[in-house]
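pinging the channel bc i need a second pair of eyes. not urgent but kinda urgent?? the chain im working w is below, pasted from the shared doc
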Amino acid sequence: MGSVKINNRGPNTYKTRGYMKRSSDYRERCYRRWQKPPDLTAFRIQQGETDLQIYAQPNLSSRAAELTARYRRQIKETIQEHPQFQTSLEPLTLETPYRIVDEMLEKSGLAGVGPMAGVAGAISEYVGSGLLPYSDDLIVENGGDLFIKSQSDRTMLVYAGEDSPFRDRLILKLKARREPYGICTSSAHIGHSLSFGKTDATVIIASSAITADVFATAVGNLVKTEEDIDKGLQLVQDCGECFGALIVIGERVGAWGEIEFV
């Protein structure tokens, strides 16, 4: 759960930063002034505490607004019916009529966290999936929780904080993929995301943005010292839906899976 900055280090460079999803703590995402993928059209969707920056081939703002409203309503109705869905820090088992909610419950169960740990990734995932029929390349950014479908390679600059020895030094190559995927970031120090750990940055790449979101939270909670890096990476390895992890804490970096530096 981080936010994202696409700066001018290259035509498709992303910079991750922390972000909390509650509207009362919302801060203007100034990093978006530098988001300029030249091959895609940018547009923004704001509804309540949801603030999406979307990059697609055509401008799909009307369709994106409809999808955002639909999935926000479904999550809000679930919270009204089951208040614990919003507040629980542990997995829940609930009966709901909504696929997005069921997937949040399922993926958070895999990671051992509460279902709302995946809310930003879920909105990105479901809005993005609804837009895919209209755009071959697509990026949906929701406070740094990304749903991506790209036919070209892109790069992501991981931001670990102004005082980190790795500041502006960790640049990841995101290879073109035929299928969409998710990449999400959690940080204990940057922004206001709830984290019980101490990582400067935890980046997870997974088959869905929901999975990436909940595991970024879970690993971020687990890693409290540099000695915990291996435990955090093992947690991700044990999930068959994750295929890359990067953990930055203090003077150490740990990586597993499809993490390629450039």
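so The first helix runs from residue 61 to 81. and Helices lie at 61-81, 84-87, 99-111, 119-131, 209-222, 229-237. — does that match what u expected or am i reading it wrong
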